[in-house]
């Protein structure tokens, strides 16, 4: 289990680095959006490329930060039912959900999206809109983002099993003490 906990720590560090870097895409997206609006209204001109860059940046934030969001227990969920269960029962639900739902779904999307990216890359696919961009940079975000999410699902499962075995602290307790409580 010690090796698995070290693997979990490595995955956590990777998603932390990716997440903290990808967060800067929000600033880039805002600047591109504002710049595009200023140019469009002041010079009465624009380009589809500027709109597509905004879409790419938004996709980068959403997809690259999914694992980071899971790491920090900030994903959306409804605690109405689970809050009535003991922490151990909640942890078992999280383990089962991770193993049977989250990781298979993330791996399936990663697997299915890879050929779509490769086809776009090999064929040099570009947007059909005038002035549009090449498509593969946006398409690579899908398998990469879901790979990061699947890895974080594995890390969270490892931490929760270690907690259930009594060899590691409750990972949810660490997040609630940093963030001021649970989520709705």
Automatic annotation (TrEMBL):
Signal peptide: none annotated. It comes from the Bacteria. One of its GO terms (molecular function) is transmembrane transporter activity. InterPro entries: DctQ, TRAP_DctQ. The chain crosses the membrane at residues 21-41, 53-71, 92-114, 134-151. Belongs to the TRAP transporter small permease family. This is TRAP transporter small permease protein.
């Amino acid at each position: 289990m010690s090796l698995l906990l070290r693997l979990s720590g490595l995955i956590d560090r990777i998603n932390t680095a990716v997440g903290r870097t990808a967060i800067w895409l929000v600033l880039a997206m805002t600047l591109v959006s504002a710049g595009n609006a200023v140019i469009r209204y002041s010079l009465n001109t624009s380009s589809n490329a500027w709109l597509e860059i905004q879409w790419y940046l938004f996709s980068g934030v959403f997809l690259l930060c999914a694992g980071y969001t899971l790491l920090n227990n900030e994903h959306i969920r409804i605690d109405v039912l689970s809050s009535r269960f003991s922490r151990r029962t909640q942890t078992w639900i999280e383990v089962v959900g991770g193993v049977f739902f989250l990781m298979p779904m993330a791996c399936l999307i990663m697997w299915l999206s890879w050929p779509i990216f490769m086809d776009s890359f090999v064929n040099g696919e570009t947007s059909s809109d005038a002035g549009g961009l090449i498509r593969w940079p946006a398409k690579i975000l899908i398998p990469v983002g879901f790979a990061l999410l699947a890895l974080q699902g594995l890390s969270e499962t490892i931490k929760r099993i270690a907690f259930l075995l009594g060899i590691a602290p409750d990972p949810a307790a660490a997040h609630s003490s940093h963030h001021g409580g649970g989520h709705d």
